[in-house]
């Protein structure tokens, strides 16, 4: 306020009293903006900025308003330069308030959410259609970006967005791998990522992830195939991760680099971008000797340590489904 008072004194000295009073009133009175708005202030001179703000309804329109804006900007120049950015202007913001925003306010931040379990193709499409970003989406490896909600400024490149998400994934992998439980039987963080991607696609129930991770780790340790449906679907869908029809028995056993019904051990690489919870489930799996799991008909899974116990659960599910037809295909005895 001291600087504004000084500026007003200068106005009184430099211009006639009536003009000075009008200028003071113009600078302080409520502006015409009825509701708060985000506005992109482009690079340019004070006059072009004033014209842009007038056309947006933030400042009064007309030559005299623009002249007043130029004078007030000059008199308050010690407050700093005007910045070009997307900025938020509240309703009825005054000319002085507008100048404060142009000089000191942080740019508007937009949000992008990458859900857990999407494939690289799905993530690339999501980023490509995200507004206010610039440039094309770069190619990136499956599982290399971290599912996360991030914020960004208008005009940031899609390359920068992908690199940020890749950095988050790398940091998460390094942290969790360093703190993993002993004796997992995985060679490196990349194998942890690959297994976590399967766990991510097998269940949406948080409490089941450590159990499913344990099943797969136990099967790997015994040389058993993982037999995970999502790995077959990944190959069949050319990396999209979803099919437009029910998975058939023939498709389930069709050879592919990721299909764990057809190959032993882990697939060639991740089948999606797993979230932190799935990564933690593999780094810190539940204890136990479970080797099998099957849907329980109530939105979860039943876990078994022997094939006989597993087959009993499969039979119970089939009976449940027969009693509630129509309900879908018969459950497969998997893994």
Automatic annotation (TrEMBL):
GO cellular component: plasma membrane
Top-level EC class: lyase
Record GO terms (molecular function): lytic endotransglycosylase activity
Alphabetic keyword roster: Cell inner membrane, Cell membrane, Cell wall biogenesis/degradation, Lyase, Membrane, Transmembrane, Transmembrane helix
Enzyme Commission numbers on file: 4.2.2.29
Site (Important for catalytic activity) location in chain: 202
CDD domains: MltG_like
Xref: Pfam families: YceG
Reactions listed under catalytic activity: a peptidoglycan chain = a peptidoglycan chain with N-acetyl-1,6-anhydromuramyl-[peptide] at the reducing end + a peptidoglycan chain with N-acetylglucosamine at the non-reducing end
Any one of the GO BP annotations: peptidoglycan biosynthetic process
Protein family membership: Belongs to the transglycosylase MltG family.
Protein name, per record: Endolytic murein transglycosylase
């Amino acid at each position: 306020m001291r600087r504004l008072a000084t500026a007003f004194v200068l106005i009184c000295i430099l211009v006639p009293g009536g003009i000075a009073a009008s200028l003071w009133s113009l600078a302080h009175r409520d502006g015409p903006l009825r509701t708060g708005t985000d506005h992109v202030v482009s690079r340019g001179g004070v006059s072009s900025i004033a014209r842009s703000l007038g056309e947006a309804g933030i400042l009064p329109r007309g030559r005299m308003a623009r002249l007043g804006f130029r004078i007030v900007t000059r008199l308050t120049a010690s407050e700093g330069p005007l910045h070009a950015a997307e900025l938020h202007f509240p309703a009825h913001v005054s000319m002085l308030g507008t100048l404060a925003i142009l000089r000191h306010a942080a740019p508007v931040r937009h949000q992008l959410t990458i859900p857990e379990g999407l494939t690289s193709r799905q993530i690339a499409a999501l980023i490509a259609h995200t507004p206010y970003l610039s440039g094309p989406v770069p190619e990136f490896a499956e599982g290399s970006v971290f599912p996360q909600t991030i914020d960004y400024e208008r005009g940031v490149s899609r390359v920068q967005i992908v690199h940020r998400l890749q950095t988050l994934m790398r940091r998460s992998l390094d942290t969790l791998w360093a703190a993993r439980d002993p004796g997992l039987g995985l060679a490196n963080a990349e194998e942890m990522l690959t297994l976590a991607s399967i766990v991510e696609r097998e269940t949406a129930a948080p409490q089941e992830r450590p159990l499913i991770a344990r099943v797969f780790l136990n099967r790997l340790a015994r040389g058993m195939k993982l037999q995970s449906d999502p790995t077959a679907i990944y190959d069949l869908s050319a990396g999209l991760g979803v099919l437009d029809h029910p998975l058939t028995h023939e498709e389930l056993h069709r050879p592919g680099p990721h299909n764990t019904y057809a190959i032993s051990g882990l697939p060639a690489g991740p089948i999606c971008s797993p979230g932190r919870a799935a990564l933690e489930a593999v780094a810190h799996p539940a204890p136990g000797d479970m080797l099998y799991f099957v849907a329980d008909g109530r939105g979860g899974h039943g876990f078994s340590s022997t094939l006989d116990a597993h087959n009993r659960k499969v039979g119970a599910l089939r009976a449940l489904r027969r009693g509630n037809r129509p309900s879908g295909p018969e459950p497969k005895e998997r893994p």
